[in-house]
Structures are given as structure tokens and as C-alpha cells.
Specification:
Radius of gyration: 20 Å
Strand order of the largest sheet: 9-8-7-10-11-12
InterPro entries: DUF354
Number of strands: 12
Largest sheet: 6 strands, parallel
Strand content: 15-25%
Distance between the termini: 24 Å
CATH architecture of the largest domain: 3-Layer(aba) Sandwich
Order of helices and strands: HEHEHEHEHEHEHHEHHEHEHEHEHEHHH
Structural class: alpha/beta
CATH class of the largest domain: Alpha Beta
Number of helices: 17
Protein name: DUF354 domain-containing protein
Shape: globular
CATH superfamily of the largest domain: Glycogen Phosphorylase B
Length: 340
């Protein structure tokens, strides 16, 4: 979603581009949906520390062979620990993107090795300099990351998908990234909040659709909510799915930002606080719920308020229009820094 347009633009300018990913369910399937050719190197290590370490070590070794053979002038990553280490080891300049300083393990393993860090303007420099990068090597763009694809042609042509339910309105719930270290290590979960939505009398009046991240998360959701909610089992393009919803409830970051910038009433139940969410709450595009009662009240109020939904749409259009396209910032950094 973030790199496809940049890769296409670089190729159009005559540059050779290699796109890599670990074998990760959503990345692989979304790349197929979007027509982005990926070279798969390594695998996801799961939620446990040893699994993450072992998978990272294996991937780093395999990626070193691939990148050494490709011999790039510049590496561009979304804060890949293996990409950062391989680029550093091979002496390749590294442009890194990151909008999540709260994911401390990834930041500690990547940010100090970056030649330049690019991030949204809502994240203060001090959130990064503590990881060992100089402020002069940080460039901020006036946008949230989803602007890279929401301002692009694909978004403009995409119509809302039919939710496939029988009730008048649809609530879309996105579960948390449960295997990320900043969640798995602290054993954080949004289960109680999702339980409250599915069990609330609201569920009798609306279709509830749950979008998971991992195969085992899908099975757990089916066992827990299968009779009361529709669990999406395949990987889908999130933009049309969000557009089909009357309310979005997000336990993660990216899709909550997408929903907010698309003007869909959005409630965050993320188990951690982060700068992008704080900005969206201040802007009035996202409401935050930290307990089941507050979530139920917010959901009912947002679903009942037609004027509110129209106002959210207009507000979101203004906010998104004010943002620059991070893809252009990315291309400028690659081409100017490296005189390609």
C-alpha cells in the first residue's frame, strides 16, 4: 500500500527496483491484490521472543545474499530490522519510514542505522532522537501514512464494497496486531471491548464484521464471535471495506487512520496510546474508548447521528486535502540524496 506507487514511478524513470517482504499473510496477499511483485525472503517469527529472534537471524542471512547480489544504491524500508542491518552491513544508504515510536523494539533495531528517517509531522523529533539518530537526519512530512494511497488514483476509483449483511447498518472491527512485540510482551488485548460490542443490544440491530490479522486470530474470532459476527477469512483491500461501513472500531493504527481520513465515524480501542491517534482525536476524526460502557455509548451515538456522519465526511475531506503525499517525499529523498 505504501510503496507500490513509488516503485512504479522509479521504474518509469528507468531505475531498477527490487521489492522484498518476509512471508507474511497480509503483505503477500495484498501485494497480489495490488499487483506488486515481491521477492519473499524469510518469514514472520510469531509472538514469542525466541521465535522472533530466530526468524530475524534467518532472514538477515538470506536477505544479505539477495541484496549483495542486487547491489542497490539505496535501501528504503518501513523500519525493517533485517533490512536496516543488511543495508548497514553492506554499506548501503538507508532511508527508513516509521510512524510508530511506541513500537520500541523495532525502533531500537532500525532508527540508529538509518541514513535518514522520514515520518509524519505529528511525531516530535524527541520521540526519535532517544533511539540514537541525529535530528538533522529526520525529515517530517505533513501527512499521515495512509495519505500515500488515499490520495492516489486507486482510492479515487475505488467504490465502497457491499458488506454482505442483511441489516441496515454495518460496524467493522479491526483487531490488534497481537503478535507485535509492544503488544505481545505486555499481554495487551482488546478482547473485553470487542466482547462488549458483540454482546451489546446494538449487535441485534447492525451487522458486525471482524477483520483479523493472523490465521490463528481468525480461528479464535470464529470460535468466540462466529454466531454473532461475520469473520472475514481472506485478505482484502481495506479501503473499499472501510467505505462500506457505517462505523469503524479499530484496535490498531493504520486502518483507524484510513477510516478517519475517509470520513467514516471511527472509534479507537487500541491497547496503547500513540502520536497518530492523539492527533486524530484532537482533530475530531477519532473518538477513543477505554472501557466497554463508553464504547457502547459512543457506538450507538455515532450510528444514530446522520448529521454527525455528514460532518465527519466533510471534515475528513478537508484534513486529507491539506496533507501532502508521502510518496512524493519518498521519491524526493531517494532521488535528491543519491543523485539517481
Amino acid at each position: 500500500m505504501f510503496f507500490k506507487d513509488a516503485a512504479a514511478s522509479l521504474r518509469e524513470k528507468g531505475h531498477e527496483v527490487l521489492c522484498t517482504s518476509r512471508d507474511y499473510r497480509e503483505a503477500v496477499e495484498l501485494a497480489r491484490i495490488k499487483g506488486l511483485d515481491l521477492k519473499l525472503v524469510g518469514r514472520h517469527g510469531g509472538p514469542e521472543r525466541y521465535g522472533k529472534l530466530a526468524a530475524s537471524a534467518e532472514r538477515m542471512r538470506a536477505l544479505a545474499d539477495v541484496i549483495s547480489g542486487f547491489a542497490p544504491d539505496v535501501a528504503v524500508t518501513f523500519s525493517s530490522p533485517e533490512g536496516a542491518r543488511v543495508a548497514f552491513g553492506l554499506g548501503v544508504r538507508h532511508i527508513g519510514f516509521n510512524d510508530s515510536p511506541h513500537a520500541e523494539a523495532v525502533a531500537r533495531l532500525t532508527v540508529p542505522l538509518m541514513s535518514r528517517l522520514l515520518c509524519p509531522w505529528v511525531i516530535p523529533y524527541s520521540s526519535w532522537t532517544g533511539f540514537g539518530i541525529s535530528r538533522k537526519n529526520i525529515a517530517r512530512y505533513h501527512a499521515l501514512d495512509p495519505a500515500a494511497w488515499l490520495k492516489g488514483d486507486d482510492s479515487a476509483r475505488t467504490a465502497g464494497a457491499e458488506p454482505g449483511g442483511k441489516k441496515e447498518k454495518t460496524v467493522l472491527i479491526r483487531l490488534e496486531e497481537s503478535k507485535a512485540s509492544y503488544i505481545a510482551d505486555k499481554k495487551l488485548a482488546s478482547t473485553a471491548l470487542v466482547d462488549a460490542v458483540v454482546a451489546d443490544e446494538l449487535a441485534q440491530r447492525v451487522d458486525i464484521v471482524i477483520l483479523c490479522r493472523y490465521s490463528d486470530q481468525i480461528e479464535e474470532a470464529k470460535a468466540r464471535y462466529g454466531s454473532k459476527a461475520r469473520i472475514i477469512e481472506s485478505v482484502v483491500d481495506g479501503v473499499p471495506l472501510i467505505k462500506s461501513a457505517d462505523l469503524f472500531i479499530g484496535a490498531g493504527g493504520t486502518m483507524s487512520a484510513e477510516a478517519a481520513l475517509l470520513g467514516v465515524p471511527t472509534i479507537s480501542i487500541a491497547p496503547v496510546r500513540y502520536h497518530v491517534e492523539d492527533y486524530l482525536v484532537r482533530s475530531g476524526l477519532v473518538a477513543r474508548a477505554r472501557d466497554p460502557g463508553a464504547l457502547a455509548r459512543l457506538a450507538s451515538r455515532m450510528l444514530a447521528g446522520e448529521k454527525f456522519r455528514k460532518a465527519q465526511k466533510k471534515k475528513a475531506e478537508r484534513v486529507l486535502a491539506s496533507m501532502e503525499n508521502p510518496t512524493r517525499k519518498m521519491l524526493a529523498a531517494i532521488l535528491q540524496d543519491h543523485k539517481l
